[in-house]
Amino acid sequence: GLNVSYDVIGEPTFGTGSSLQLENGINKIIGSNLGQNIVLIGNEHVEVVVGRKFDKDNVSVENVNAKVIKYINLQTYGSISYAIHPTDQNKDLIADINGNIFLASSKEILYSVENVTVKDNGGFLSLKYLDNNDYLIGFFTFEQSIYINLFQFSEEKLTKIKTPKEYNFPKYSKCNKTLLWVRIYNHCESEGAERNDIGHAGGGIQVHNGEIYIGLGDTNIPSSVFNSIYTTRDANLPWGTILKFEFDYNLLSLVGIGNHTESNLTEVWIKGLRNPYRFSINKNSIWIADLGTSVEDEINLVPLNTNNVDLGWPYYEGGFAHQPFDNVSINSITQKSPIFSERIGGLIGGHFLQINGKNLYTFGTLDGRLFGLEFVESGVLKYKINIKNTDFEKGNFLLSIEKSRNGIFLMSSSGNIVEIKNS
After folding, report:
1. What are the angstrom distances between the C-alpha of 56 and each of 11, 98, 149, 328, 402?
2. In this structure, what are the phi and psi dihedrals at residue 323, rounded to the nearest 5 degrees?
3. Residue 391 in contact with residue 322, Cβ under 8 Å?
């Protein structure tokens, strides 16, 4: 009398995406969404997780064509985030980098966030709906601070409710000798200096099953590998992390549930990132596109039920160990290997997209190139996704890849937003 459906999901048995650091789990069942000895009643859905080994060094490149549909044009600079309402398409919102928030259906500006600093890696970077009650979370920079604002869309009006989280950049420009090993970092010249740059701010927000994920960068200027040691490795600071919250609807507050053992902040969930500007959630895993230096960018896969993950920055960048870190014992790093890494340049993380029956993880670059990854037993297939009738070659920049109801949106600096639908 049971109606049973099932999915067989392949996940790596070691590396960034692994919850089992063992090769003997390859091609074996290593998990399920159901426990043992439970009683099955009525309609049941079973997910069986099978261990796979991905050879990320075995990469082949192919081409695939995608049909791009002109979706909307905003008379603004820097459309950067698309907020899909959980139930009502008429409440979809679009945000630009300056903090203007538009109603997608009418292109009307509903709200303009004051005091947004748009320079370096800053600006208004992301806006996402919570699961219900028309609340939204927005992420932006002002001077040397990051603000996480709570908004509400009610009676065709968007209102700021409060700022539940604010993070202030550390006040330094080079190195802080009191927090570094001077015998290694003898290049330090100043301590605690004021700064006027906006370093790697991060900016990604995703909401999934009542949990809120927010990405923070290491706050450093592009070339500062060594400075990251005391932003990303200080247990009292939130930098270079993915934060994890629950939302308290009674107090309208964000409650940290990351609980990384190497952090004193309850909201820190994943450590060791340089700049998680965009990330996405697919099934039960989070896909994090982390911008690197001139060495390598990387894409990391982490199961949502995994805790205490350290992705390695600044000790590691892709498959490269930075000197002198390769001689340092780093006991906290249990999952450091990215599932894909190469020098991409201007990496923008995306979402899954079906093209001609292929289920691809998409990512892009500032200059408008679009790629997809397919993971097979022999390694990684990288696709160059050919898109036409866009104007990226005319100086337009791709600022974000956002999930649509039936595919992905490409958000550009010209205000053009185009959609690629699943096919």
Report:
1. 13, 38, 38, 25, 25
2. -75, 145
3. no
Tokens of 327: 């001689």
Distance CA 46, CA 365 (A): 37
**DSSP β-bridge partners for residue 254:** 247
User: What values do phi and psi take at 91, rounded to 5?
Assistant: -105, 10
Annotate 219-239 with three-state secondary structure: CCCCCCCHHHHHHHCCCCCCC
Radius of gyration of the chain (CA): 21
| Cα(400)–Cα(367) distance, integer angstroms | 11
Enter the DSSP assignment of 26: B
* pLDDT digits 0-9 by tens, 48-85: 888 877 676 777 888 999 988 877 889 899 999 999 99
Pairing relationship of beta strands 268-271 and 79-83 according to DSSP bridges: unpaired
What is the Cα–Cα distance from 355 to 341, expressed in whole angstroms?
A: 23
Single-letter code of the amino acid located at 126: S
Predicted TM-score (pTM) of the model is 0.88
